[in-house]
Write a structure and sequence with these properties.
The structure is a single chain. The chain has about 400 residues and is mainly beta. The protein has one helix at about 1-35, and strands at about 90-95, 100-105, 115-125, 130-135, 140, 150-160, 170-175, 190-195, 205-210, 215-225, 230-235, 240-245, 255-260, 275, 285-295, 300-310, 315, 320-325, 330-335, 335-340, 345-350, 355, 360-370, 380, 385-390. The strands form six sheets. Strands 19-23-16-15-25-24-18-21-20 form a nine-stranded mixed sheet, with no helix packed on it. Strands 4-3-6-7 form a four-stranded antiparallel sheet, with no helix packed on it. The chain has a four-stranded antiparallel sheet with strand order 11-10-13-14, with no helix packed on it.
Length: about 400
């Protein structure tokens, strides 16, 4: 292959070298033909260079000559600002598991002839876009990156011979079947009017209008979309409602959409999207609580609880509450007035530790019994406000 490469290079250079030699000879011949003879006794050079002497040795004055007239005017580049119109009536004439055949009405030229069309498409709720280019036609089959049971969005733009581009056509949404040979290759219609209803502090209910299908709608897939790159199936339900928990506060968009599905597994084009609110961010905790089992034996335990004021102002009077996850029962305590109702324990300050200064703390103890579990509590509150367990 190296020999072929060098031979090609030589063949490309040799015509240029030959041209240089020919031009050099031509220049030399011209110089020899116009050079005056240097023999003794010849007439003096003409008074006007480049004009032959007149008979008798007198130099003739040059006569005026008109400049040559160009045979054709130089061409001017076309600088028309008018691009083609946008293609119209974009449609899918055939949809299969691995291909989509598109048709459209040709664009109207602006300044110049239509040279071709560019197609851009992407899988709905994804982060990748694809493109294809064709000549001056009004139909093409797209096969790259097309898969079964997926939704795609297509647009077409025209370009002319000078590179002007039209606006994009209207978008066309297409969903591919899950099979090309099964008894049912027709997807259901898209669910309509997805709305967000009955929003509470912790949940929201989605509802939508039912879809139709040539065989029958089996149910609905509910998806969560982060608004950027990721879409995930969160539920499959038989009816037209779904209740979801509110997500915690985050930088994503928390959008939901729904697709109908039939018994063959075909899915519809997606519904519109709705945004589910997030749970409010709680204010920073102004207290910390530490629970330690000091001693434990079959049927009994002794524990200490330390509450710390993490705020900037003193706490004058405090009540600490927590719940036992096991079956513990408090029998006595110290450094606080302690009571228990069910699994919930309430500890109230006594006179000498009533005030918690900023960064100050108080420790109290409990003694009790248990039979099945002595698991420690994990959630605490100071005067009704949640504390950080440490």
């Amino acid at each position: 292959m190296t020999g072929v490469s060098v031979s090609s290079l030589f063949c490309r250079l040799r015509p240029a070298l030959l041209t240089v030699v020919v031009l050099s000879l031509a220049v030399l011949g011209t110089a020899l033909s116009v050079a005056p003879a240097a023999e003794a006794g010849t007439a003096a050079p003409a008074a006007y260079p480049g004009v032959a002497p007149a008979p008798g040795g007198a130099a003739a004055a040059p006569t005026g000559t008109a400049p040559p007239t160009p045979t054709a005017a130089p061409s001017t580049p076309n600088t028309s600002p008018f691009p083609p119109s946008a293609p119209t009536n974009l449609a899918a004439s055939e949809v299969r598991t691995g291909s989509v055949t598109l048709t459209w009405t040709a664009a109207t030229p602006g300044c110049c002839a239509i040279a071709g069309y560019d197609i851009t498409y992407y899988q709905e709720f994804g982060d990748l876009a694809f493109s294809a280019s064709v000549g001056a036609v009004t139909t093409t089959k797209i096969t790259n990156y097309i898969g079964p049971g997926q939704q795609y969005s297509f647009r077409v733009s025209a370009r002319d011979s000078l590179g002007h581009r039209s606006n994009w056509s209207d978008a066309l949404a297409v969903v591919t079947p899950v099979t090309d040979t099964g008894p049912d290759t027709t997807p259901p219609s898209a669910p309509q009017s997805l709305t967000l209803d009955e929003v509470t502090a912790s949940s929201a209910t989605l509802s939508w209008s039912p879809s139709t299908d040539n065989v029958g709608v089996l149910g609905y897939n509910v998806y969560e979309f982060d608004g950027w790159f990721t879409s995930r199936l969160v539920a499959t339900v038989p009816e037209t409602t779904y209740t979801t928990s509110l997500p915690p506060s985050n930088p994503l968009r928390n959008r939901y959409y729904v697709r109908a599905r039939d018994a063959a597994g075909n899915v519809s084009i997606a519904s519109n999207t709705v945004t589910v609110p997030t749970t409010p961010t709680p204010p920073p905790s102004t207290c910390r609580v530490t629970y330690r089992n000091q001693s434990e034996w079959p049927g009994g335990f002794v524990a200490t609880v330390t509450v710390q004021n993490a705020g900037a102002t003193p706490v004058d009077g405090w009540i600490v509450t927590f719940s036992f996850p096991g079956d513990q029962q408090v029998t006595s305590g110290w450094n606080a007035t302690i009571g228990q109702t069910g699994v919930t324990v309430t500890a109230r300050n006594v006179d000498w530790n009533r005030v918690l200064a900023p960064d100050g703390s108080a420790t109290f103890g409990v003694q009790g019994r248990w039979s099945l579990s002595d698991a420690p509590p994990t959630a605490f509150a100071l005067n009704g406000a949640p504390c950080t367990a440490v």
